[in-house]
Amino acid sequence: MTTKKAKGRPSAYSEALADIICERLALGESLRAICTDEDMPSTSMVCRWLADDTKTAFREQYARAREARADSLF
């Protein structure tokens, strides 16, 4: 039996994926641009993670990344 690789965008939260998203945000990319990559979750999925009360660390990391992005843009 062969194992099939899951198709489609990732929807499961992981710290590694959150780190990549926040790093790219901090470097000036928009969430929309990041989420167009095939290996990234959709924008709506990231918004669901941000609204999830069990992911407060991600919410804080995301906020810091947005502040860094704003600083780099201005």
Features:
about 70 residues, mainly alpha, 4 helices
Secondary structure layout:
Layout: H1 15-26, H2 31-34, H3 43-51, H4 56-73
Structural features, described:
The chain has 74 residues and is mainly α. Helix content is 58%, strand content 0%. It is built from four helices and no strands. The longest helix has 18 residues, at 56-73. The chain is globular and about 40 Å long. It starts with 14 loop residues before the first helix and ends with a helix. The mean pLDDT is 90.
**What series of H and E elements makes up the topology?**
HHHH
Strand content: under 5%
Estimated structural class: mainly alpha
Which percent range fits the helix content? 55-70%
Shape: globular
Distance between the termini: 55 Å
Calculate the mean pLDDT score and round it: 90
Strands, count = 0
